[in-house]
Amino acid sequence: MAIATVNPATGETLKTFDAYDAGKIEDRLARAEEAFRAYRGTSFAQRNELLRRAADLLEADQDDIARTMTTEMGKPLGAAVAEAAKCVKAMRWYAEHAADLLADEHPDPKDVKDSGAERAYVRYRPLGPVLAVMPWNFPLWQVMRFAAPALMAGNVGLLKHASNVPQTALYLEGLFHRAGYPEGCFQTLLVGSSAIEDILRDRRVAAATLTGSEGAGRSVAAVAGDEIKKTVLELGGSDPYLVLPSADVDRAASTAVTARVQNNGQSCIAAKRFIVHTDVYDAFTERFTERMAALRVGDPMHGDTDVGPLASEQGRADLEELVDDAVRRGATARCGGQRPPDLKAGWFYEPTVLTDVTRDMRIHHEEAFGPVAAVYRVADLDEAIEVANDTTFGLSSNAWTQDTAEQGRLVRDLEAGGVYFNGMTASHPAFPFGGVKRSGYGRELSAHGIREFCNVTTVWYGA
Questions:
Q1: Within this chain, do residues 220 and 192 fall inside the same structural domain, yes or no?
Q2: Taking all residues of the chain, what is their mean pLDDT, rounded to a whole number?
Q3: Do 344 and 271 lie in a common domain?
Q4: Alpha-carbon distance 390 to 445, whole Å?
Q5: Which of 120, 139, 232, 397 lies at a CB distance of 3.0 to 4.6 Å from 168, suitable for a disulfide?
Q6: Is pLDDT of 1 > 90?
Q7: Looking at the DSSP assignment, which residues form a beta bridge with residue 307?
Q8: What's residue 463's pLDDT?
């Protein structure tokens, strides 16, 4: 794939970039190694000051970088501004909390004595340069939820961003440089996917984090496993959204629209499979369909646009194949199911609600990365859980119920990295984020995220 900014609302190629050659990659790896040797010795107070400065710069830049994101991958401009603001919030959160999250841990004195030690403690030490392979769908947030904790822990970052968001990638490198970080602390590598293996195998790269497709995760994990290097993977998702009899159906239907079409439906944690108890199925489906059909599709730079284009022509083609397969096998398109007839340019697709979805349809098993919802009718809680777990993915889950017994059962039985009641899944710096099954492993954000790329070191002094 060429490294280029291609406006998905028009299909126009606006700017192209040459991939870094071997010499430039080597130079950046050498800089990262040199930077880590010095930066690892900085104090939390120094890192706090640097990250807060970067947050202030991003806050000042948020309108401009939002326009860049919208131009490169098509999200509505308001959503892009909100994404930048969310990054600022996370940066300040880690600047404030990192010292406490990574403070030395002191075992019970009785256990210390029993080990034969005079004293002992556990210290979190940085690993080194971390390669971040990041996706285009949240081109600022996905990077920052790695970068903020990694830099506060004393690591340095090497960013291999998606090839369709090069200007966002270069902005991020410049942001940390302008904030005063030492040269080499955070660098962008404009390279194609074929260059990742050699970079990851380089002795100077200590670990890797990837957010992306299952195939990309499998490839990076295989190389890292061969090199015995730590990885964190956040892969695809096909999150269930359960609506049970005690739910506030109107609120559930309204929130379901946002949960499905946020970021033009291109979100790993978007609700994609709507599993509705038969007692409330008709009411929910009617309200959900009505609100999905009312969404305004159009130019993402316009303030009244609800849903912009998909990020690529291939992405739209993949989504069309899933919908066409489902309809051919008996699903009903309650709304949408086609390209907007009045939008001839760009990679737009109508918000779509499919009912009568069954296991023999591809959309039941594959991730629909666009504004398409699959709705299921179930007879009871047991069937709802069975359908929810009938997937290779396990990123997060949503459930609408006021019944505490049902809530307890769902916490126990839903196979996912998160269970969100009476609301929609969203990431927040204070809570761990990640999945199970083929949605990946490891956690981002919170204390769990900042410790992923640390050497958890036992320090022991003999009596």
A1: yes
A2: 98
A3: yes
A4: 27
A5: 139
A6: no
A7: 297
A8: 84
Indicate whether 210 and 313 sit together in one domain: no
Which of 162, 167, 130, 168 minimizes the C-alpha distance to 149?
130
Take residue 392 and report the two structure tokens written for it.
């290779």
* Complete DSSP assignment for 362-406: HHHHS---SSEEEEEEESSHHHHHHHHH-SS--S--EEE---HHH
As a whole number, mean pLDDT of residues 440-444 equals: 98
Full domain range(s) for residue 216: 4-236+437-462
Specify which residues 232 forms β-bridges with: 209
Q: How far apart are CA 80 and CA 57, in angstroms?
A: 16
Residue 453 lies in a domain: yes
* Rg of the Cα atoms in the chain: 23
Q: CA-CA distance, 238 to 376, in Å (whole number)?
A: 14
The CA distance from 95 to 108, in Å, is 29
Distances (CA, A) of 351 to 260, 328, 387: 9, 19, 23
- CATH number for the domain spanning 412: value is 3.40.309.10
Query: Who contacts 368 (Cβ-Cβ below 8 Å, separation ≥6)?
Result: 238, 265, 272, 319, 322, 374
Number of domains in the chain: 2
Would the pTM count as exceeding 0.85? Answer: yes
427 part of a folded domain: no
Is 284 a member of any domain?
yes
Question: Which residues have a Cβ under 8 Å from the Cβ of 148 and sit 6 or more positions away?
Answer: 51, 87, 90, 91, 93, 94, 95, 429
97 has pLDDT over 80: yes
Mark whether 338 and 361 lie in a shared domain.
Answer: yes
Check pLDDT > 90 for residue 216: yes
Contacting residues for 6 by C-beta, under 8 A, at least 6 apart = 12, 13, 14, 72, 164, 312
At 319-369, the pLDDT tens digits run 999 999 999 999 999 999 999 999 999 999 999 999 999 999 999 999 999
Sole residue written with tokens 């990192």: 98
Q: Are residues 340 and 300 in the same domain?
A: yes
Within a 13 Å sphere around the CA of 193, how many CA atoms are in the beta-carbon half? 15
Which residue carries 């990365």 as its tokens? Answer: 369
Residues 264, 381: one domain? yes
Which letter does DSSP use for residue 188 in this model? E
Do 259 and 346 belong together in one domain?
yes
The DSSP secondary structure of 65-80, one letter per residue, reads: HHHHHHHHH---HHHH
Asked whether residue 118 carries a pLDDT value surpassing 90, the answer given is yes
Contact partners, residue 424, CB within 8 Å, separation at least 6 = 241, 255, 256, 258, 259, 271, 398
Phi, psi of 436 (to 5 degrees): -130, 180
Does residue 383 fall inside a structural domain? yes
- CA pair distance 236, 350, nearest whole angstrom: 22
> Which of the residues are catalytic?
234, 268
Residues 315 and 412 in one domain: yes
